[in-house]
C-alpha cells in the first residue's frame, strides 16, 4: 500500500495517479489487527486508515474533475462505509449524485446523513449539507440533455475544465470572472455549457445569455435575457420601476407603478445597476451567469458586470458568484474597453483566463469517434486532423456531414464565408443543401434576421402559416442547423452556418428580406419599439430604404444616450448621417438635428474640435427663422471653444452671438425661448467663473436672477444657486466660506427628483469641492468619491478629471502619499487626452509633492516646473498653484537659494492665488519684506518657518 501511494504521489498523469490510488485502496483490508489495542498498533492502525481515506478523497476529486461521476460516487460510498460519520463526504455524495442526474439518490444520501448523525452523535447536519438539500428540493427541474445525442462530447479540455472548477471554488470567497477566449468554433460555448450544466445539476441557479452583432444597439440585452429566464423575485416598487426601464412588461404586471416620466427618462444608472443586481441575486447564496460572444457586448453590460463583481456591498453579502464569459479572439469591437475591463478584475484577483486552442491529433480522433458513434478509420485520422487542424467545429461538421472521405466541389461564394477554409465551407453548404426547398427558404430568412431569431418575427416576415413554418423549423432543428433558445426563440447552431446561408442569397433577395424583417420587427415589438430600434434601422439600411433607416437609427441613438452609452449613440448617428449624405435630396431639418446630436455626444466625450464641427454643420442646415435652434447651436459652439481652451473673448463672443440671434425675450414668448435665454445666462456666468471675474458675475446675477426665478426651469434655478456659490468663492479667493458652502448645498437640494444623473453628479462634486476648502476633508472625500463613481457610470470625462484633481488635493491635505500618487496618475491619464491643462498641471504637482516627501528632489523640481508650464498655457492664472509652488520653495531653501525661494513666496501670495491660512501667509509676507530690505538670512528664516508650517498642514 505504501508503494502504491508513493507512486501515486510521483505520477504526473491523472490517469496513472488514479490507477495507483485504486491499487492502494484495494490493498487496504480494513482495520489493522482488529481487537488488539497495543499502543504502537493503535498509532499504525490510525495512520493506515487516514492514508486510505486520503486516497479515496483524491480518487473522488480526480474522477469528478474528469466528469466520471459513477466512479466518483462509488469511491464516496466506500469512504462512508469505512467512516459513516464523515459529514463532508455526504455532501460530496449528494453533489455527485446530483451531477449524474439522480436527484433521488442525492436526497437519499441526505436522509442517510441525518439518520446516522442523529443516532450516533445526536446532532443535525451542518450548513453545507442543509444548503445543498434546499437547493435540490427547490430545483424546478434537472437540466435536461438535448435529444438525439445532440450534445457534443467534451474532449481534450481537462485543464480548462479544471480551471473553471477552480474559479467556481474561488467565487465562494469573492465574486469571480472566468474569461474563455479562442477563435470561432473552438469550443468556448461548449466548455461553458458543460459548467452551466454541472452547476445546475447541483440545484444552483445557472443562467445563460448570448450577445449578437446587433447587440450593441440595445444596452443591457444579455442582462435582460438573464432576468427573463426565470420569474422575478419579490422587490420593492422602487426597484421594479427601475427594472421596467429595460422590461416594459413589468408595468403591465403592476399597473399601480407609474411609468418613467419625462424628467426621469435619462436613467440614473447607479439605481438601475442596484436594481438589476437585486433582481438577479435575490439573496441567493450561489449564482452562475454565462454570457456568450462577449466581443459583441454593449459597453453598458460591461459596466454593470464590473459593478456586480466589484461593488463592496455585493461582496459583503458573500454570494458565491461566478460570471463566465466566452470571447471570440481577434473580433473585439472595442479592444481597449475590454482590456480595461480585464485589468480592473486582474488587479482585484478576480479573473481566471482560459485560452482554448485546437485539439491534439489524439483528441481529434477521439472527438470524431464520439460524434460518429463509431471508430474512425486510423488511416483517415491523419487526413481528418490535417483538414480540420484540430478545430472542434470543423471536426464535428465534417463528421456529421459524412464528408471526411470525399473530395468536395462547388464554386466560390461571396461575402464573409470566403474566410472559411474551403473544405469546411463546402461541408456547411452540403448541410444546408440537405434541406427541403421550403425549409431552405425559412433558414435563409432566419439568416437575414441574424444569429438569433424569434418564431414570431420569422412568421411575420415569411408570411407562412403556423403548420408550414413549424414543419420547416422542425426539419432544420432535426438537421441540427438551429437550436431552441427559451420558449419561442432560436439561433443557429453556429454563426458560420448562418454566414453560408446568408452569402448564398442574391443581393436583390437579401434586400427584399431585410425590408420584410424590419416591418416584421415593427409589428411584433409594437409595444416596445425602443428595444429594437437599432436592429430595425439596420435592416432598413440593408434593404436600401434610407429614409426609414435614418428615422430608426436616430431613435436608437436617443435610447443609447438616455443610458449614457454615448459611444454607441454616436456610432448610430454617424450611420444615419452617412445614409443622409448618400441621398439625392437631403432634409435640412433632419441633417441639422443629426449633426447637433453628434456634436452633443462628442462634447460629452471631450472631443471638442469634432463637436464644434458638428455644431457648425448643424447651424448651416438650420434656417434663419429658427431663432431658438440657431441660438442654441451658437451657445453650444461656445462650449466647445471653452472646452478646447479658447480665450475669454472667443468664448464670450459665441455666447453674445447666441443672445443676439435669440433676441431679448418678451413676456409673451413661449417657454422654449425663455429656457434658451436662461441657459445662455448660465453658461456666461460659468465662463466668468472660470476667468475669476467675481464682480462681473455679481453684476450679471443681479441682472438675470428675477427672470430666471420666473421663467427658468427648476434645473436653471438650481444652477443660479450654484453660480452664487462660485461667485462667493471667487470673491473670497477660495478661502473657507460658510456662505459658499450653503449655496452649494442649496443648489444640490434644489435639483428636482427627476434631474439628470450627470447634472446631479456635477452638483455633488461642487458640494464636495466647497467642503474641501471649508476644511471638512473627510466629508469632502465622501462626496467626491461618490461623484466620481457616478461620473464613471455616465462617462463624463471632463467631470471625472476635475473630481480626480480635487480628490488628489484631499489626499495631500491628509498626508496620504501613496493614495495621492495613484490619484495623480489617474488624473493625468484622463486629463491628457482631453487636453485639460489645468488638471494635467494639478496631476504633475501632486506627483511633485509625493517625490518631494520621498526625498527625490530633482524629480520633484522637474514635475513642479512642468505643472507651472501646464498652467502657463492659459492667459488666466490657475488659482491653486500652491500645489507646485510649495515643493519648489522647499527645494530652493534646501539649496540655500533664498532669492528663488522669495520668488515662489511672492507667487504664493499673489492676489490671483487661493488665500492661504494666516499661519502660512504671515511668515511668507515677513520673508518677502526681509528680502526686500536686504536681510537675506532673516528672509531665509521666515520662509523656513512658513515651510515648516506648510509641512505640518500637508501643503508640502
Core attributes:
single chain; 956 residues; mainly alpha; five-stranded parallel sheet; three-stranded antiparallel sheet; 46 helices; globular
Describe this entry's structure for a reader.
This protein is mostly helical. Helices cover 67% and strands 5% of the residues. The protein has 46 helices and eight strands. The protein has a five-stranded parallel sheet, sandwiched between helices. A three-stranded antiparallel sheet has the order 6-8-7. Helix 11 crosses helix 13 and helix 31 runs parallel beside helix 33. It is globular, with a radius of gyration of 35 Å. Mean pLDDT is 86; it is low at 140-150, 261-267 and 403-418.
Which strand order spans the largest sheet, edge to edge or round the barrel?
2-3-4-1-5
Parts with pLDDT < 50 across at least 5 consecutive residues:
140-150, 261-267, 403-418
Helix content: 55-70%
Radius of gyration: 35 Å
- The end-to-end distance, rounded to whole angstroms, is 70 Å
User: Got a strand count?
Assistant: 8
Class inferred from helices and paired strands: mainly alpha
* Rounded mean pLDDT score: 86
Which word captures the global form?
Answer: globular
> How many alpha or pi helices?
46
The major β-sheet equals: 5 strands, parallel
As a percent range, the share of strand residues is under 5%
